[in-house]
Please model this.
Amino acid sequence: MNIAEMILHRRSVRAYRNEAVAPETLAALQERMAELVPLIPGAKVEGRIIPTRHGSFLQKWATPHFIVIFSEPTDDGLLNAGFMYQQLDLYAQSLGLGTCWVGLGSLEGGEPIPAGMKVAVMMAVGVPDGVARRTGAADFKRKAMAEITDWPDERLEALRLAPSATNSQPWFVTHAGETLRIWREELGLIKQRTHGRMNKIDMGIGLCHLYVTHPETFRFFREENPPTLDGQIYIGSVTL
Ligand SMILES: Cc1cc2nc3c(=O)[nH]c(=O)nc-3n(C[C@H](O)[C@H](O)[C@H](O)COP(=O)(O)O)c2cc1C
Model:
């Protein structure tokens, strides 16, 4: 399966075998990490495969591998981290690996942090322990199409199915002719504290799903005088 097809079949894997991924598969991941396409080329993102013991996580994952994703400490850095590493999530799952984004984790064991960057997020990766792929859209717990857009649009199905922190699905899309305007749900003060940073990564993940389903034509840009929409923050515009 290619990565666009994986959108319908991927899931967060939280049960892993305590077993190393084959060296050639790790090498394939490493190679792919060097080829991830950015949404915003100037916003720096870097990933590294680390041993699980070099991180501290709330959940105890049996897999020996994690990927730590660094970004410049800006909103665009987080957006880019989601956009780039969701390509890796889909690729890893297409190889039969399990993955799970991990929002709450920190580094231990002297792992260096690239200059001018911070840990944005991490991703568990490993051999799934008896976790089956999804069989199709009916297998997802997601908002209905009508809740994520002003106009039902089957091109947005890939966005609808995208993963997000605590399954919060912070995206909303409005149509302006050929242009899709992409919005992030504005959070109240308390939720902003717990979900704000992760929701910026989520937006990159959702945009990644639009990109991988329209790889030849996807274009992201920001309008000069962005419109406003009550309760929403303008992220950018897309044509597909
Ligand atoms: C940025 C981000 C952070 C996440 N952090 C965690 C986490 O710390 N622990 C966890 O078990 N799942 C985490 N998840 C996984 C989400 O809970 C999951 O993607 C969502 O519930 C949808 O389920 P699915 O990925 O199986 O489609 C995270 C997902 C994203 C996108």
In short: Strands lie at 45-51, 55-57, 65-71, 98-102, 105-107, 118-126, 171-176, 179-185, 219-221, 232-239. Residues 3-126 form a domain with the NADH Oxidase fold (CATH 3.40.109.10). The chain has six helices and ten strands. Residues 11-12, 14, 59, 100-104, 121, 163-167, 198, 201-202, 205 surround flavin mononucleotide (CB under 6 Å).
